[in-house]
Write a structure and sequence with these properties.
The chain has two domains: 47 residues; 48 residues. It is elongated, with a radius of gyration of 19 Å. 63% of the residues lie in helices and 0% in strands. The chain is mainly alpha-helical and 118 residues long. It starts with 16 loop residues before the first helix and ends with a helix.
Length: 118
């Protein structure tokens, strides 16, 4: 017996659907992923869930061709951080290995996305 709760917009929530879309796109222009946009909307704008408006952050971004896979962005950032660290600390062999593993993951994921899009 699963009970599905209908999400109702709280009375204190002052944003409309179009305003929420504008906020999402504004945050996406700053280079944020869908994950981060959801957190910022919750913390700074007081919007507990975008689904209250029948929206999803990823779908709104896909409509405007601004969606990037969060895992891809996170892996790229991690590789950059590891490369910067390793450039300063050549003796750090653990970082060297972590960098090799992370680059491998990134390449596998890019190959997967490339194969999936064909």
């Amino acid at each position: 017996m699963s009970k599905t709760k209908k999400l109702e917009k709280p009375v204190w929530l002052k944003y409309g659907e179009e305003e929420v879309k504008e906020i999402i796109l504004k945050l996406a222009d700053k280079g944020l992923t869908a994950e981060k946009i959801g957190l910022i909307m919750r913390d700074q704008y007081g919007i507990p869930k975008v689904s209250l408006y029948g929206l999803k952050v990823g779908k709104v971004l896909k409509e405007k061709d601004k969606f990037t896979k969060p895992s891809l962005v996170n892996l790229q950032k991690k590789v950059i951080k590891l490369e910067e660290h390793y450039a300063k600390n050549k003796q750090d062999k653990k970082t060297e290995r972590a960098m090799m593993i992370t680059k491998s993951k990134l390449k596998k994921f890019q190959d997967y996305l490339k194969k999936k899009s064909e």
